[in-house]
């Protein structure tokens, strides 16, 4: 295939998934006007929560995350809800903060993460935001939600910004931080490639910077010539100049191992560019950008990544057939999902935070308050599909602390659809110098009330 033709496809895929670039100013409005009870969003028979997420535009591939969460909530509602309350989950499209650029967004051009959150509070009177997505998008509303005393739960991003319990006591992350992931990759690299030169291509924002920080804290030295970035804003224009230059540099330097802190569209572009150049290093790809169904190319086979969930094809794990059943019973959110469909990492991810919310709500009891929810959340270990415990404390609001090394499985000439996850789970913190601990998988049993 000619490079020009391949690069045109690369540009198209770059616009299929990218991180939020825009930010919004914050403001303060009344959060509880018109609420029917003393706790906004809570009635005797329902609890209303919301999220600002990309449902259209260049990041529409992430829509399945919140869709899976919604499927779980609807499944729980069929079982009778939580303590007699049904869960109403309102998802507003923020187009990843890029609605003003068009790019296939169905949200209005003036839509921002802030305007969505204002609507969720003023019109829908949500109890909390749950599973909103994107580092820049969620950083832009942190202060607004804090001023209105609204819990900002299970942010879909690996930034360490979500772990500020003193300043933001109602803000909670979810996934393993980019720093911790980088440290675990460093441990893997030192054990398997102790003498090899290591290259790095990272997104030029919090994602890439903190992932690189983790690698360095884990003891990896990357030569300055092989420490490269790409511009996240390229997703808007479809430019491939950054990744072409980065991959060309690493190919010329014959770097044998490359770590990628890239989202799926850029992962595809980097792999395709390397292939066109005849360059095939060992790729180590952040969990954010490695999901095989999202990257969608046979060139990813053999890549190493981090997983905090089992393989989506591992039916020996009880959560996998359980979630398949949940998705099959939700034709509204998953109209094409059937017994032969392959689940993606996105769907496991969304189901995980939905279960965390539901289990915490159940533990709080019949009398639901925001303060009571936070107290319950910081005093329990949650039962989710994750292979590492999801727990929070008064001093730790980050969420998961690690994961297992996984390898993307070959699917012949077709794009891979699964990964093989090792049975050793590594956990650590994002704090400099903290140790990395190893343990076996911990598969939380499915609570009886969910069966």
Quick gist of this model?
With 451 residues, the chain is α/β, with parallel strands linked by helices.
Major sheet details: 8 strands, mixed
Give the tally of structural domains: 2
CA radius of gyration: 21 Å
Question: CATH topology of the largest domain, which one?
Answer: Rossmann fold
Q: Helix and strand succession?
A: HEHEHEHHEHEHEHHEHEHEHHHEEEEE
**What would you say the CATH architecture of the largest domain is?**
3-Layer(aba) Sandwich
Hey, roughly how much beta strand do the residues contain? 5-15%
Protein structure class: alpha/beta
In terms of quaternary structure, the protein is single chain
**What form results from the Cα inertia axes?**
globular
In round numbers, the mean pLDDT is: 91
Strand tally, please?
A: 14
Biggest sheet strand order reads 6-5-7-8-9-12-13-14
Any low-confidence stretches, pLDDT <50, length ≥5?
A: 1-36
| Helix fraction by DSSP (H/I, runs of at least 4) | 25-40%
**CATH top level assignment of the largest domain:** Alpha Beta
Write out the CATH superfamily name of the largest domain.
Response regulator
Helices, by number, come to: 14
Task: Calculate the terminal CA-CA distance, rounded to whole Å.
Answer: 50 Å
